[in-house]
Design a protein that fits this description.
Strand order of the largest sheet: 2-1-3-4
Radius of gyration: 17 Å
Number of helices: 9
Mean pLDDT: 97
Shape: globular
Length: about 180
């Protein structure tokens, strides 16, 4: 079995990942440019932990579009590297971090200075999950003839909200920081 350190070493750098993106690249960049970290002493405390992060993701994922820029900002201040692992070509790793039995992404795995698992976060902050569950609650049954159309409409609404809602980005920040500073 491949160790977490090996996955970290085999992953893409952020630059490599962003360069190969075909979906959500502009939106992710916009969030990154727009999101401002709060003045938070916990960020400086993270520096002393000498963390590394593995981000399991895919560029088509709307959650990753929103969450990865927040992680990138945290990593810059806390001075830890991020290695990107593509979910669909690393199912052996992904299947160790299922969410309710699903391969939901992104998943952020944080390694300590001994390269052992320190914390795991993802795929969503709790308040974002509640929003998604709420907006999806009125979808028709999957066998309904309108399901596909209605689901696309809901996904578009979620995508727009993720792209344009700084409060959501702040929720992601707080959720990740809570996990890292337990």
């Amino acid at each position: 079995m491949t160790t977490l350190l090996k996955y970290f070493e085999q992953g893409l750098s952020l630059e490599q990942y962003i360069n190969q993106m075909n979906v959500n690249k502009a939106e992710m960049h916009k969030i990154y440019e727009s999101f401002e970290l709060p003045n938070d002493e916990r960020l400086l405390q993270l520096k002393d932990k000498h963390l590394k992060a593995i981000a399991i993701t895919e560029d088509w994922c709307g959650d990753a579009m929103m969450n990865l820029p927040v992680l990138m900002k945290i990593a810059e201040v806390a001075e830890f590297p991020i290695s990107v692992i593509m979910r669909d070509s690393n199912l052996e790793l992904m299947d160790q971090y299922l969410t309710n039995g699903a391969r939901s992404i992104p998943i952020f795995i944080f390694l300590d200075q001994d390269n052992t698992e320190f914390a795991v976060w993802g795929p969503r902050a709790q308040t974002i999950q509640e929003y998604v569950v709420d907006i999806r609650k009125d979808l028709p049954a999957k066998d309904d003839t309108d399901f596909e159309v209605k689901q696309k409409e809901v996904h578009q609404q979620i995508h727009e909200k993720f792209k344009n809602t700084p409060e959501f980005w702040n929720e992601v920040y707080e959720s990740i920081m809570t996990q890292l500073t337990k």
